[in-house]
Structures are given as structure tokens and as C-alpha cells.
Write a structure and sequence with these properties.
By secondary structure, this protein is α/β, with parallel strands linked by helices. The chain is built from 9 helices and 8 strands. Helix 2 links the parallel strand 1 and strand 2. The model has no long low-confidence stretch (mean pLDDT 95).
């Protein structure tokens, strides 16, 4: 009797486009905000889910995580077995590649799952179920720990503009917008990089549309600060936003061209 077939991975093959250093903004935020959790974990496993046709992002994630958590391990998970085979020459101590999908075939439960530019090609109606599956795979919360972190979002081809949702075992927590400020005309330029859960909700009457509208207004009001540079203008605009929106970070992150807002403030209306 032939051995039973392994279950088919959950998900579909994506385009797989990737570039070196594309996810630097997301990784920088992960290191800054989740580094302490990774250091505390007994076996800090991170998953680069859907790394694409080349393994650059997984290699970079290992290097960046180890600056704050020297024992971190990265598992690159791809649904296309040919991509897994192509990545094998890049495996090293702390970095392996596996065939799989949203079931995340990794043990122990990961302290981090990064899913960048994966759900872009799915329907909006599928996002909630995928989020639930991935959050259920995270390391659970415990005394002194909020548990693992899922970071899911979208960026442009060279990583200048990026928006992501951060989720814990309990569900969505925050939305972060990050950009190279020198390339920005106005904050709503980031609308085209909203993750799948939000991109179709950028219409009047939805919270994310109101947020981007207010951000553009704050950016316009901060125009006098442009003489000091785009960074100072961004920081002033974000500071003004805090009067009406639950911004969760502070000037140290704003200086990086970032702003993070509570998910509940931008969540789609049902």
C-alpha cells in the first residue's frame, strides 16, 4: 500500500515577484516593536510566509531579527515546491525552507509570521478566514507575553511605500503606514498600498477613507514645515492627527516615516 499523501497546502500560488531589500520598512518596525518578545521566547521562530520566487526576504529577515534576538530562527514557507527547491542553496544555520501554505507547517508555534504581498491576490472576503488561521498558529499569549505576531501587508516593488496590519493571537491590533518621505506628494498616495482588508474600503463613509482625508488635510496644514524637510512636515502632520485618531506610536517612529493607528479606528464597517 502506498504511503498516504501529505495534505495539500492551503492557499494558491502567487506571482512571486520580489526584490532585495523590499521589506526593509516592515522589518525595521518588527525589530523595533517585537524585538523584546523575540528575545524572551525560548525558541524564537519566525516565518516568512510566501517569500516568492527568490529567497532574499527570508535571508534578510534572519539577519535583521538576529540584531535584536541572536537565537532567532527563520523558516521560509512557500506553496510552490519549485520555489522551495530553488531556495535550498540559501539554507544555513537558523534558516530553512519548507513547502506549505496558510497551515504554516512549523514547530514550535511561531513568535512571528510575516506575510507580505501574499493576500493582495485574494478576494477581500477571504481575508478574515486567512487571518484567523494564521493567528491560531501564533505562539499563545502568556504571563509576561502578548504572544506571537502576524504582520500582513502590501508594499510597492522597491519598498518605498508600505502598509500593514499587525495581529496577535486575539486578532488585529494596529495598522501602520510607512514611506520614503522624499517620494511622497501627500499621505493618501499610500492608499494604493493598503492591504486587501482595507483597499476596497477607501471610499466615502468608511473609516480608512476618513483617516486618509484627515491625514491629507494635516499634511497640507503642515506645509510651512516643508522648509525644514519632509520629515519635519510628516511629524507635524502626524502630531496634528493625534487629536482625532488613536495613534499608538511616537516621534521616534514618526521620524522613520511611519505612523501606527489602532485597528479598531480603521476597521471596515460591516
Amino acid at each position: 500500500m502506498p504511503p498516504p499523501r501529505a495534505p495539500r497546502p492551503l492557499g494558491t500560488v502567487t506571482r512571486g515577484t520580489t526584490n532585495p531589500n523590499r521589506l526593509r520598512r516592515m522589518d525595521r518596525w518588527i525589530v523595533a516593536t517585537h524585538g523584546a518578545e523575540l528575545r524572551r521566547a525560548a525558541d524564537p521562530v519566525a516565518v516568512d510566509l510566501g517569500y516568492g520566487a527568490a529567497p532574499w526576504t527570508a535571508v534578510e529577515l534572519l539577519h535583521r531579527l538576529r540584531t535584536v534576538a541572536p537565537h532567532a530562527r527563520v523558516v521560509g514557507v512557500e506553496i510552490d515546491p519549485a520555489r522551495v527547491a530553488a531556495a535550498e542553496p540559501y539554507a544555513r544555520a537558523g534558516l530553512v525552507f519548507r513547502h506549505g501554505g496558510f497551515e504554516v507547517p512549523v514547530s514550535p508555534a511561531p513568535a512571528l509570521i510575516r506575510a507580505a504581498n501574499v493576500l493582495r491576490q485574494y478576494d477581500e472576503e477571504e481575508v478574515a478566514d486567512v487571518w484567523r488561521r494564521l493567528c491560531a498558529r501564533l505562539a499563545p499569549a502568556s504571563e509576561g507575553s502578548r504572544g506571537g505576531l502576524l504582520v500582513e501587508g502590501t508594499c510597492d516593488e522597491i519598498g518605498r511605500r508600505h502598509v500593514w496590519v499587525a495581529l496577535g493571537p486575539e486578532g488585529p491590533r494596529t495598522v501602520t503606514l510607512a514611506t520614503r518621505l522624499g517620494s511622497l506628494d501627500r499621505p493618501s498616495d499610500l492608499a494604493e498600498r493598503l492591504p486587501k482588508a482595507l483597499i476596497h474600503r477607501n471610499v466615502p463613509g468608511e473609516p480608512v477613507h476618513a483617516f486618509l482625508r484627515d491625514f491629507d488635510r494635516a499634511w497640507a496644514a503642515a506645509a510651512p514645515y516643508a522648509s525644514y524637510g519632509a520629515r519635519q512636515r510628516w511629524m507635524r502632520a502626524v502630531r496634528d492627527l493625534t487629536a482625532d485618531w488613536p495613534v499608538t506610536d511616537g516621534p521616534a517612529r514618526w521620524r522613520q516615516g511611519e505612523v501606527t493607528v489602532r485597528w479598531q479606528a480603521l476597521a471596515p464597517r460591516t
